[in-house]
Amino acid sequence: MSETPSITNKASKPGIVWPTFLMLTITPAVSLVGIVWYQLAVGFEWHHWVTFAVVAALNGISITAGYHRLWAHNAYKARAPMRLFLALFGAAAFQNSILVWASQHRRHHRHVDCEEKDPYSARKGLWYSHIGWMLRHYPTNDDDFSNVNDLQRDKIVMWQHRHYYSIALIMNILPPLFMGAITGDYIAHFLACGFLRLVYSHHTTFFINSLAHYWGRQPYTRENSARDNDLLAFFTYGEGYHNYHHLFQNDYRNGVRWWQFDPTKWLISVCSWVGLSYDLRRTPRFKICEAMVHQQLSSARQKMAGQRVSDKLRSYIEQEASQLATLLQEWRATREQWFVHNRDRLMGASAELHHSLELERKALRSKIKELEFSLQQQYQRLRTFNLTLATA
Ligand SMILES: [Zn+2]
Ligand SMILES: [Zn+2]
After folding, report:
1. Which letter does DSSP use for residue 151 in this model?
2. Fewer CB within 10 Å of terminal CB in the chain, N or C?
3. Distance from the alpha carbon of residue 287 to the mean position of ligand 1, in angstroms
4. Which ligand is closest to the CA of 225, given by its number?
């Protein structure tokens, strides 16, 4: 006989996920007490902290370059040795298997900010999006691998998924054990590079789900809560450029500007020089700038809606919007020509035809550069306009 759910049952919270709860409470407690006690009783040495930093970086970058950009987003492809390395050191971060992590993350992107479908929806609060979502059996956490069929064909992903707990445990024990055997300081290495490093790896990743949806700027889109934040990028191996990432999730770069700190992007790039990674996906510069211009236009419209401004200013913004539409149309046509041109080149050509194709290639390239330049100028004009409007 089926029971009618009572109001109390409906309102009660789902049960606690005890293994996660215990891990996320015991590891910080042991770290805190153990580190303070050891420092006072014996004292740490430089090699304890170097090992901590190296292993933390290996874990962190395996999550960002592997779990996130490679497996969750297919932003590039990687050869088996690189995938194996990322799967091993990613497991050491104790953030679940690649398959589970990537499946949840794809749902996060698809339903970002939706309270019913985004597993770590920022709308449910900072605590929930940081850690709360993992501590209870919320329905949004139920395994549903229908969105990771591609990953189920990756042998390394499936091997790691099947043996996740053993791999994670071994990968957590090996570095402090190895360093302990060399230096004789087992306790210090287990405290620093074992416990504290795990806590650090956890929370730096969790910050992307929480703080990177609360704190920072939104230069590319305001349609979701994701933000760009340089400080977060520094601690998260480049993942802090989350506003860009949510709009262009298949780009292997998160910090797309040359000056933005994104060691994950540099690592993927360097690996491509030696053939370990390939097919790196990049969003065309024009599309990035187009998003920024759109953002400035909508910001200008929003500001003008709350102010008394002349019809001249309103019509100026509409002129800029129509110029953007024209530039976009021209860019699409030029890109189309570019693809046709590349196909012709690949099909092979006589020496004479090859010469004319080369000239066409140069002309198309300079046309694309010209359109990018016009768009950048438009962005600067609108930015100045918005700044003036803000101070008016
Ligand atoms: Zn996000
Ligand atoms: Zn992502």
Report:
1. G
2. N
3. 20
4. 1
187 CA to centre of ligand 2 in angstroms: 36
Residues 295 and 274 in one domain: no
For 209-243, how does the pLDDT look when each residue is reduced to its tens digit (9 = 90+)?
Answer: 999 999 999 999 999 999 999 999 999 999 999 99
- Smallest CA-to-CA distance from 20 within 163, 169, 135, 97 is with 135
- Nearest-CA neighbor of 163 among 68, 98, 74? 98
Domain that holds residue 305: 285-391
Q: At what angle do helices 285-305 and 351-391 cross, to 10 degrees?
A: 20
Residue 223 lies in a domain: yes
Q: Which two tokens stand for residue 305?
A: 């809606």
How many angstroms separate the alpha carbon of residue 234 from the centre of ligand 2? 17
> pTM to 2 decimals?
0.89
CA distance from start to end of the chain: 69
The C-alpha atoms of residue 259 and residue 280 are separated, in whole angstroms, by 20
CA of 69 to the centre of ligand 2 (A): 7
Ligand found nearest the CA of 106: 2
DSSP code at position 6: P
Separation in Å, CA 249 to CA 222, 281, 385: 15, 10, 30
Domain final residue, candidates 278, 301, 328: 278
d(CA 124, CA 79): 39
Q: How far is the CA of 329 from the centre of ligand 2 (A)?
A: 29
Separation of alpha carbons 28 and 107, rounded Å = 29
Write out pLDDT tens, residues 258-314. Answer: 999 999 999 999 999 999 999 999 999 999 999 999 999 999 998 888 777 888 888
Ligand nearest to the CA of 73: 2
What percentage of the chain's residues is helix, strand, coil (to nearest 5)? 70, 0, 25
Q: Is 350 found in the same domain as 234?
A: no
